[in-house]
Design a protein that fits this description.
Largest interface: A-B, 44 and 61 residues
Oligomer: heterodimer
Largest sheet of chain B: 7 strands, mixed
Number of domains of chain A: 1
Low-confidence stretches of chain A: 1-6, 169-181
Low-confidence stretches of chain B: 1-6, 310-315
Shape of chain A: elongated
Largest sheet of chain A: none
Mean pLDDT of chain A: 77
Helix content of chain B: 40-55%
Distance between the termini of chain A: 67 Å
């Protein structure tokens, strides 16, 4: 049984929409990006497990205790972390959450859902703002900047927008251009 | 689907100008709360003085208030070159007079039945950049000449006095006969245009002339019938100004009288009731607007990208709402107030001889606050195109009357058929000649002693071949054209009309219900959003100065997205903002890594060349 169906589900009455090649390309780029982000998040949490363990009262729950044993997390007392210790954990969790969200948007983008297009666009916009922030802090990541910008520009192509019926709602405008009367 | 010809009202061709005007005079529907209605000019000029503005910058009164008459306007005092002659309804007011006028006006206009409600504020309908541009526009009003604040109140009081003494509603009508069309031109004169002061619009000025036209044609039985209605809107030109008489979607007709929905204060004419968002360019920002428009064009046409800001106007245009709801006073046949018509033409002396402004010359360089000239002239004294070219004004100069169209089509078909016969003959003759040259050239191919002769024959042959090809192309094109013409003749003979809106390129439509679905929260948001952004910026500077730029970008991003939810264009906004960020990112990447990009490009080129050469070796 297939866990995910990447083909766009259509009602009987709806004609089947063929997925443009650029949509597939964007989806693959995004999928790779999201998997890398999730992996970085997981790795970050893995590396920071001893610190994470201090935030959770493991001994209070047998399930947590079992997991901690399986992950070979050293037994430590529950307590607070310093800001320096906390930051990488937050970053790792952020990566994991955004990666999962991005993956969800990408899968729906692949299924030609208009909201998938919108949220993937928004996701990449937010990523760009974060990357600009990194540039200002003197930690530029040009590869990520380039890839996110490329994905946005590919998504903005007319054929992609048409495939997602993006411009249908905005086809007419009733604003009047005038000279100063 | 084309509309069928509907039964239209008729009037004998022999009717006088006044009878024609009266038969089709319009119904004007004003907004609730309008202060000024179409008036005669005699009562207006009784309240005016006549002035001239001299090139050295000072104003000089020529004739006192109460002494200006139509005879004076028929033979106005001469003015030196470069001077501007103008009437002045409201004399200069000091602070005390202004305050008194405002208080009196407020007291006298406290009419709950006829009160204007703006509804959704115009700034709630547009984005941040437009709001900033609006603030800039307001600042320019301080620097430009403008009509003084209390002028609107005084003008309204004077109009009330005039109406109280002799209530009447007047249009000035003119009948013109051009190219088979009979054009009925209705001019409406108002004491004052209070769009800015009363309805948050673009401008205020003393005196206002507005116009609409009806186009009649002789339908063959000695009668005239209307075919088109053209309303002079500020924002449209040519074909977009007219609607077909049977276009029920776009033109309201009441018992054979067209209905005009009049804009609040602006007195602009609209075919449909509603609220029209008008985007006005700020003259000082025109170069920026042009630059952005150019970039938008490059973006869409060269880079094949979807538009960032939609296909509508670009950002540096200020939105104004022209309220043409038609829920107030109605003037016209069968209405509470009926018309008093005045027939005018070039022979009326004040029309022809007075080229000055009909109200205050406010010294506004972009002219929005200066009063207009009369029906015949522009502000610079040149003749209005709507006066001398009534057909071209509405794009009808290229359109014959329906009966004439059929005759023209028949004639064109006969001409084309004759041309096709002639082409048949010509192609036959030239084809034979071409064959002769062809076989001659072939026969001489093996003879080395006649090379020059062969070359000359081949040249003639090629020229003739090109000629025959051109004739065949013309014949084919004519055939297609003839088929289209005949099909049109058949349609017209069968009484099948074109789509009545086929000629319209830009259709003025009132804001739809979807666009107006702003609730009080949206209104409140628009009022506080700019303030919140400023507070956010200050907080960033105070509490997190290291991240001020990133924080600012994030703040703006969030605000713009919230705003877009209120406007119902979240998807469009997300795309626009993300694409802008992507362009910035690409530029940054290129700028910071140009050496790497050059090296990478060179390596890629080298690999490609090696690959090509290796493939060639392998073959």
């Amino acid at each position: 049984m297939k866990f995910f169906s990447f083909k766009k589900k259509t009602k009987d009455s709806e004609p089947h929409t063929k997925r443009p090649a650029s949509v597939t390309l964007i989806a693959w780029l995004s999928l790779i990006d999201m998997f890398i982000t999730i992996l970085i998040g997981l790795l970050g949490i893995w590396i920071m497990l001893p610190q994470v363990a201090r935030l959770i009262p493991i001994s209070a729950s047998p399930v947590l205790q079992e997991m901690a044993d399986w992950l070979e997390v050293p037994q430590t007392e529950t307590g607070t972390l310093t800001a320096q210790e906390l930051q990488p954990i937050i970053e790792a969790v952020f990566d994991l959450v955004t990666g999962i969200l991005g993956l969800y948007f990408t899968l729906n983008f692949l299924r030609l859902k208009p909201w998938g297009w919108t949220w993937l666009m928004l996701y990449n916009g937010v990523v760009l703002i974060i990357l600009f922030g990194d540039c200002i802090r003197g930690e530029p990541d040009y590869v990520s900047l380039f890839l996110s910008a490329l994905v946005i520009l590919l998504m903005n192509q007319k054929e992609v927008r048409i495939a997602f019926k993006i411009d249908k709602k905005y086809a007419s405008t009733n604003l009047i251009i005038s000279k100063n009367s | 689907m084309p509309a069928q010809i509907s039964s239209s009202p008729k009037i004998p061709e022999t009717a006088s100008d006044l009878e024609l005007l009266r038969r089709f005079e319009p119904v004007l529907r004003f907004i609730r709360g309008e202060y000024f209605y179409p008036s005669d000019i005699e009562r207006y000029i009784q309240h005016c003085s006549l002035w001239m503005h001299l090139p050295d910058g000072h104003d000089e009164m020529l004739i006192r208030q109460g002494q200006v008459t139509l005879d004076i306007l028929a033979d106005p005092p001469p003015v030196p070159t470069g001077a501007v002659q103008f009437l002045r309804l409201v004399e200069p007011l000091d602070l005390g007079d202004s305050a008194k006028a405002m208080i009196t006006h407020t007291r006298k206009t406290r009419d709950k039945e006829n009160k204007f409600h703006a509804g959704q504020g115009r700034l709630a309908r547009v984005g941040y950049i437009s709001r900033l541009a609006d603030a800039f526009f307001s600042l320019t009003l301080l620097m430009r000449g403008r009509v003084p604040g209390a002028t609107a109140a005084v003008a309204e009081l004077e109009y009330r006095d005039a109406q109280r003494a002799d209530e009447k509603y007047v249009y000035h009508g003119r009948v013109i006969r051009h190219n088979g069309w009979v054009v009925l031109q209705y001019w409406f004169f108002y004491f004052y245009n209070g769009w800015r002061s009363a309805y948050h619009g673009v401008n205020d000025h003393e005196a206002d002339w507005e116009m609409m036209m009806l186009y009649l044609y002789p339908c063959g039985d000695g009668m005239l019938t209307p075919r088109w209605a053209g309303y002079a809107a500020h924002d449209f030109h040519g074909d977009d100004l007219r609607r077909r008489w049977d276009d029920q979607d776009q033109l309201d007709v009441m018992d054979g009288h067209p209905v005009v929905y009049v804009g609040a204060g602006s007195h602009a004419s609209y075919f449909r009731p509603g609220e029209y968002v008008t985007a006005v360019s700020v003259a000082l920002l025109a170069p920026v607007t042009r630059l952005l428009d150019g970039l938008n064009k490059f973006w869409m046409e060269t880079l094949k990208q979807a538009p960032i800001f939609g296909t509508g106007p670009f950002v540096f245009r200020i939105p104004f709402v022209d309220y043409a709801r038609g829920d107030g006073v109605n003037i016209g046949p069968g209405q509470k107030y009926e018309w008093t018509p005045v027939v005018i033409n070039e022979s009326v002396p004040w029309v022809k001889n007075y080229r000055g402004l009909w109200g205050l010359y406010a010294r506004d360089p972009i002219a929005g606050e200066n009063a207009p000239s009369g029906p015949m002239y522009n502000r610079d004294g040149s003749v209005r195109s709507s006066w001398y070219d009534t057909l071209g004004f509405s794009g009808l100069d290229k359109v014959p009357t329906p009966p004439a169209e059929l005759d023209l089509l028949d004639k064109r078909c006969v001409e084309l058929e004759a041309r096709q016969v002639a082409l048949d003959q010509e192609i036959l003759v030239k084809s034979e000649a071409l064959h002769r040259l062809g076989v001659t050239a072939e026969a001489l191919q093996d003879d080395a002693f006649v090379t020059k002769q062969v070359l000359a024959i081949e040249k003639n042959r090629d020229e003739l071949s090109a000629g025959v090809r051109a004739l065949r192309r013309e014949q084919t094109e004519n055939e297609v054209l003839l088929t289209s013409l005949k099909r049109r003749v058949e349609r017209l003979r069968a009484g099948i009309e074109d789509d009545p809106q086929m000629h319209i390129k830009h259709l003025a439509e009132p804001a739809s219900a979807a666009q107006l679905r702003f609730d009080r929260l949206a209104e409140a948001w628009s009022a506080v959003s700019i303030g919140l952004i400023l507070a956010g910026i200050v907080s960033l500077i105070l509490f997190n100065p290291k991240e001020v730029w990133t924080g600012l970008a994030a703040l703006l991003f969030v605000f713009v997205l919230i705003e877009s939810i209120f406007h119902g264009n979240f998807q469009q906004t997300v795309a626009a903002v993300s694409v802008l960020l992507a362009v910035m990112a690409m530029l940054l990447v290129i700028f910071m890594n140009w050496q790497l990009i050059l090296v990478g490009g060179a390596i890629a080129l080298a690999i490609y060349l090696i690959w090509q050469n290796v493939r060639e070796l392998g073959r």
